[in-house]
Amino acid sequence: MVFALTVASAMGAPAELPDIRRTPVVKAIERAMPSVVNIATEELVAIRDPFESMLREFFDPYHRQGPSGQRVNKNLGSGVIIDEDGFVLTNAHVTRRASRIWVKLANGIERECELVVSNPRSDVALLQIKADGKEKFTPIEFAENNDLLLGETVIALGNPFGLGGSVSQGILSSKNRRPPIEGEQLDIADWLQTDAAINPGNSGGPLVNLRGELIGMNVAIMPTGQGIGFAIPVTQISRGLSEALTPEGVRRMWFGARVSAGSPPIKVTKVEPESPAELAGLQVGDEILKVKGRTPRNFIHYSALLMRGKEIQDAPLKIRRDGKEMDLTVHLIPEGDYFNEKLILEMTGITIEALGSRSSSGIGPVQFIVKNVKEDSAAKKARIAPGQLLRGVNGAQFPDVVSLARALYSTPKDEDALLHMRYRRRRAFGFEYGDFDVELPIR
User: Fold this and answer.
1) How many Å apart are CA 345 and CA 196, to the nearest integer?
2) Side-by-side strand order, sheet with 350-355
3) Helices then strands (H, E): number in the chain?
4) Model confidence over 407-437: pLDDT tens digits?
5) What's the rounded mean pLDDT across residues 93-113?
6) Which of 38, 90, 108, 388 could form a disulfide with 159, with the two C-beta atoms 3.0–4.6 Å apart?
7) Rounded distance between C-alpha atoms, residue 100 and residue 119, angstroms
């Protein structure tokens, strides 16, 4: 015994054994969980009251319909903070038809949010927490695009029903699964499949790897399967954000360039012909170093800087091209000033008027009625006539005239646009309806 003590004294104090409970899974959860939030939404639905018309007729202006005339529905899901300024990523279906949105942070504090942009085709929505501008939030780290290992350990995180953090562990079962979803038109080529439990309240929460990095967003479970869950991969998330989080999509201002939505550096990937970006000298491959004098941390921060302020028409940029830095200014213009019915007339020879109105989400498709057809135009030769309906172009439908005009404008000059039309003909006993497609040269 004395000998043992002597040896211990000579060797110094024994080193502490590592805590075997702090596994890589636990460490990944500790890194990612502060970014996970609970999302609560309210939808106000008018209730038809059989006595309402009578009360209004006899008692207005004294009768006013109060809160009892509305029904409040709450829908709970999860989300994840992706930028320190309070941008929150979630599923578009979590916030669909919401009139108000709140998030509950990991520390239990609640904050109201506003919907920045929603892309139903990719089922991606971006919220921003309403804060005083000084408060900073804990964002999750994004994994590199397509940095996935089949069979690697993954963790599904969420904050369902406002009860606190929820964790389930599994493996990455597949990197390219397309689950059948009845009635949904989702632009998702490859979903991630995992056996980690994904419950309805976890929808919109992050799927992370053992580094605590975001590799996907929990979206669905397979009702007929056991232990089968799905997540939108980070590549598709980035693509969905890059399509929706633009001056055109958020502020209806024409910028005319797209940038990479992954990790920095932020590179220009597309420049529209004759757009403000092209007129300012921006080119594909340019690296954007500064926006309005500030260095963007990532794509979300870049977009926020670009659209910050009530007046966003002038956007000074510092770029790097072929190793050389240069300054240029993009002068954005309202889309309605360029993409309008006049432009459609110039490109197609038809004048149209939108029928109906946008859906409650603001992105529902509408149809357009042909009001006039220009003589000696390709449309006239194709037997397009006043009174016919234009249902879409090139397989897509649009929520307004501006979106339709943009689609026509983006058609290459050496290609024809496919117009989807509907006609109505009077018959002896009513009307006959039919659909037909017309290929028209644009411009």
Assistant:
1) 54
2) 350-355, 367-373, 389-393, 416-427, 430-441
3) 11, 25
4) 888 777 778 888 898 888 777 676 777 888 9
5) 86
6) 38
7) 18
240 within 8 A of 262, measured Cβ to Cβ: no
Domains parsed from the chain with CATH numbers? 35-129 (2.40.10.10), 141-238 (2.40.10.10), 246-334 (2.30.42.10), 339-441 (2.30.42.10)
For residues 410 and 346, what is the distance between their CA atoms, to the nearest angstrom? 14
pLDDT digits (tens, 9 = 90+) for 165-183: 789 999 999 887 655 454 4
Q: Which of 93, 118, 42 is nearest to 363 (CA)?
A: 118
Q: Where are the beta strands (DSSP E) in 47-165?
A: 70-83, 87-90, 100-104, 110-119, 124-129, 141-142, 153-158
DSSP state of 140: P
* Whether 4 contacts 189, CB under 8 Å: no
Which residues are tagged catalytic?
Answer: 93, 123, 203
CA dihedral 58, 61, 63, 64 (to 10 degrees): 140
Structure tokens at 74: 């709450």
Nearest CA among 278, 285, 286, 258 for reference residue 333: 278
